[in-house]
Prior knowledge:
The complex is a heterodimer of chains A (about 500) and B (about 475).
Chain A: H1 3-34, H2 48-56, H3 60-77, H4 84-94, H5 99-113, H6 120-141, H7 146-161, H8 168-183, H9 191-195, H10 200-211, H11 217-227, H12 235-252, H13 259-279, E1 281-285, E2 290-294, H14 300-313, H15 318-338, H16 342-355, H17 375-387, H18 392-413, H19 416-437, H20 442-445, H21 450-462, H22 470-479
Antiparallel strand pairs in A: 1-2
Helix pairs in contact in A: 3-4, 4-5, 5-6, 5-7, 6-7, 7-12, 7-13, 11-12, 12-13, 13-14, 14-15, 15-16, 15-17, 17-19, 18-19, 18-21, 18-22
Chain B: H1 2-17, H2 20-38, H3 45-81, H4 84-89, H5 95-130, H6 134-143, E1 147-152, H7 157-171, H8 180-199, E2 200-201, E3 210-213, E4 226-230, E5 233-234, E6 242-250, E7 258-259, E8 263-266, E9 271-275, E10 285-291, E11 298-299, E12 306-313, H9 315-341, H10 346-361, H11 363-372, E13 378-379, E14 384-385, H12 391-409, H13 413-418, H14 425-453
Antiparallel strand pairs in B: 1-12, 2-11, 3-10, 4-9, 4-12, 5-11, 6-7, 6-8, 6-10, 13-14
Amino acid sequence: MNRSLKKILLGGLAVGLLLGVSFIQNSLNRDRDALELTRVEPLENAPPVLAFTTVALGGFRGLISNILWIRAMDLQDNDKYFEMSQLADWITKLEPHYVQVWLVQAWNMAYNISVKFTDFSDRWRWVQRGIELLRDEGLRYNKNELLMYRELAWFFQHKMGANMDDANMTYKQAWANEMASVFGKLRAPDLDELIHPANDDQRARAALLRDKYKMDPEFMKQVNERYGPLEWRLPEAHAIYWAALGLKAASENPSKVKSDDLITLRRVIYQCMQMSFQRGRLVANPFAKRFEFGPNLDIIPKTSEAYAQAAEDDKPNRDHILRAYRNFLRDAVYFLYEYNRIADANRWYRFMAAKFPTDHVIDGDRDSLASKVSLDDYALSRIQEDIHDTPRDRIKGVIEGLLFNSYRSLAVDGEEEHAYGYKMLAKKARESYMSRIGSTREEAISLPPLNEIDQEVRSRILDPKEGAPSEIRAILRTRLNLPSESATPTTNAVPVEAGGTNAPAAP
Amino acid sequence: MQPLLAIALLTWRAAFRFRLFIVVAVLLLLSVVGLPLLIKDDGTARGFTQILLTYTLGTISVLLGLSTLWLACGTLARDIEECQMQMVVVKPVARWQIWLGKWLGIVSLDAALLGLSGACVFGLLEWRATKLPPAQQKVLQNEVLVARGSARERSFDKDIQTRTEELFRAWLPKHQGATKPEIEEVHKAIREQVKAGLQVVLPGYSSRPWEIQLGSASRSLRGQPLFLRVKFNVADLSPSATYYGFFRAGIPKKTQLWQSPVKSMSADTFHEFEIPPDLFDDNGVLTITCGNPNETALLFPLDDGVEVLYRQGGFAANFIRGLGIILCWMALLATVGLASASFLSFPVAAFFSLGLLGIVLSSGTMAGAVEEGTITGYNAETGQRGFSIFDLVVIPTFRAVLKVIHLAEDFSPVDSLSSGRSISWTQLGLAFTQIVLLLSGVVGLIGILIFNRREMATAQGTS
C-alpha cells in the first residue's frame, strides 16, 4: 500500500475513534458513577487549562498541590497574603474534587487571613474571596457536595451575620450595598421583577444576580415563600438560600447523602430564621447614610415551624433545640408586645404556654409558668431583668433610653406602633420601680413623672446644638406637630403646647 | 585584558549565533508581559504590585538562572568536546584568561538580559501605577514602590543579663539545698521573668515607653509620615481571634501625644499603620506606648515586636540594587557551570550543576536535621530525638554546607522589593563580597586550576 495512503487511513482511523469515544464518553461516565467504579465524577464545565492539568499531570497533581500548599503556609506564617488567592486557586484546581481542599482554603481566607488585617475593608475583601472560592468555583465542580453548601451558608450566617468579628457591621453594610445593586436602593427586594424582567434595568440586575452571585431568582422566591419573608439584603437570607439549595441537591441525589449533613443544613436554616426574626428587617437611615436593623416579626410563624421540625428531625439534640425554641418564643412574645402588637403577642404567649406548660417564663422564678403570669407582667419582667436591683439613676437611664428609642422609631423608622410600644414600656418600667421602692423612701429616691422625663429627652433630641441631626429634628417636629425651629424662640426648650408645623408656609 | 575581552566577546557571539540571547530575551519579556494577565491578586493595587514584583522577578531569576547554568556548562564543555578549545589554547592566551573571559561573557550577557527584563518590569509597574486613583498611588508610593529603612529599640540583652544575675544572686543563698538542674531551671525562669517585664503589656495598662532611635535618618524625615509595624503574642485566645489596642507616639511631657484609633488586631501577625510626621524629638528618638484594653496581656517580642519604617530612598535605585543582587547569584551560577564543565562533559556537567542547585534549594531539610540534631527523626511532643551513627558525620557536614549556602541565600532582594524594604548599598556590597568574591572566587579558582591541568589532546566524550 502506498505510504501516504496508509498515513491518511491511519489518521482517518484515529479521528474516527476519537469521535466515537466522544459519543460514548457520557454513557461511560454514567456507568462509572452507577457502578461506583470511581470516587469522583469527571470534571464538567472546566476551563481548558484545568482540564489539561488534571489529565496531563495525573498522579503528580497531588505532589504539586502539596508543594503549593507548603508555600502558602510558609507565606502565611510570614504574614504575606498577596499570593494566597492565587495559590488557593491553583491548589483547588489541581484537586478539584477533593472537597476538604476547597473548604480549608476558603475557610483560611474568610477566617484566618481576614482577621490579620486591621482595616475592615481589607477583611471584607478576604471574606469575599472565601465566599467566591466556594460559590463561584467549588460548587461549579462539586454541585452535589453538601459540605460545600453548608460551609458557604456558614460564612453568611456566622462570619457575616454573627457579631464575633469586630468587622461584622462592615460586612453587613457592604453586603447590603452589594445587594442594593441587585434589588435596587431604599426599597424592599422584588423577586418577581428579576424572574420576569421587563426592562433593561431589571434584565441587567437579574443577570448580575445570576452571573455574579450565582443565585436563581426563582429558587429565591421558593425559599422566600417557604422560610420567609426574608430580607435579601442581609446575610441570613443568603445562608438560608445556600442551605436550602444544599437540601435540594441532597433530594436529587439521595444515595449520596449522609443524614448528619442534612441535619447541619437544616440547623443553618432554623438558626438563621431565628436571627432574621431578631434583626432581619433593614431600615435605611438616609441621614447617617447607612442601614440599621430591626426585628422581622412576620417570620415568627415559619421560624416556629422550623424549630418544631428541627426538634423532630434531630433526635440527639432534641432537648437543646427545644430549649432554643422556648427562648425564641419568649423573645417573639416580648418583641410583639414591644411593637404594640398586643393581640399577636397574646396569641403567641398562649401558644408558648401550651407548648411548654412546665417551663417558667421569668428567669429566677420557677413558679412563673406562662399559665400563671399575665402577658403584661411577663413583658415587664423582661425590662426588670435589666433594671432589677439597680439604683435610681440607672433605672432613669433605662427609661430615658426607651423614650429615646421611641422618638428614634418615630423619626427614622416612621413606626408609630413601635414608638408607642417603647413609650408604654417606659411607663411600665417607671411604675414597677415606684412600686418597688415603697412610700418610705419615695421622697429620697423616687423618679420624676414620666412626662417630665419624656420632655427632657425630647428637648435633648431637638436641641439644635447638641441634639439629633437637623433632618431628624425636622421630621420629628413634623410628626409631633411642633413648630419649626425657625419659628421657635431663641431658647432650646420645646414648647409644651404644640402649635403649627415645620412645613413651609403657604405663599 | 585584551584576550579576556576577546574571549568574552566570542561568548557573546556564540550566544547570538545559537540564538540563545534572542530566545531567553523573548521568554523573559513574555513572562513579564504575560504574567500580569494570568496571576490572581488579592484585589488591591498594593497586592497586585507585590505579586507582580514577586512573580516576574522570580520567573526572571529562574529562567535566567537555568539558562546561565546551561550556557556556562555548554560553552566550555562543548568547546572542549568539539575540539575548538584546542585551537584556542595554542593561541597566546592563558587558560585562566579563557576561563575568566567566558565567565565575563556569560555574566555580562546576564547583566544585559537582566537589565532588559528589569527595565520592562519597572516600566510596567510605573505605568500601571499612573493608571491608579491618587489614593491608591499614594499607598503604593508609601508602602511598595519605595525603599524603606527600619529602626527598632536598642538591645536589652545586657540589662536582662544584669538584672537576672541580681535576682539570681538574691535567690541562691536562700536555697542552698537546690540541685543543679533546679538551679538551672530557676535561672532560666528568672531570665524569662525579667524579659517578660520588658515585653508584657498588662490588661488595662499602657506599655513601657518604647524608645526608637531614628539616628541620622531623622534629619531627612521631617514632614514625612512614618510607619509603625507591630506584632504581639497572647496567652488566651479570644473567640474573635482579635484584640484591641491603641498606640500613642510623641515627645512625653513636652508635646501632646498622638493617639491612634482603637484597632482590632490579631495576635502573631505584623500590623502596619501610618503615624503622623514629626513626632520624634530633636535627638531623633520616637517614643511609643501601647494601651491594652483587653482582658488578657499582650506580649510584644523584644526583637520584632515594635519597629518603625521610614522612607529611605526611591524605588528606582532600590530596584537596581535588587537586580544587582540577582546578578550576583547569576555570577555564582555561571561560576558553578564553568567549574563543572572544566572537568566534566556537557551533559554530566549540566546534571552535576543542577544537582548542586537542588541541594541548595533543599537546604530547609538540612536546616531541619541540624536543628533536630539527627537525621533519624524528632518527636516534637515528647522532645525525644532518634540517633544514628551517621549523625556524627552528616550533621557537622550539613552544618558546614548550610554555612556556605547561607553566604548566598541570606539575601532576599525579591522579598525586600515586594515589601518596600530598602536594599542598601552596604547589602549589595556584602552580597558582592560573599557571593561573587568569596563563593564564586573559591569555586572559580578550583575550576581554573582544573581547567589549567586538563589534558586537551585526549579523546573527549562526544567527539
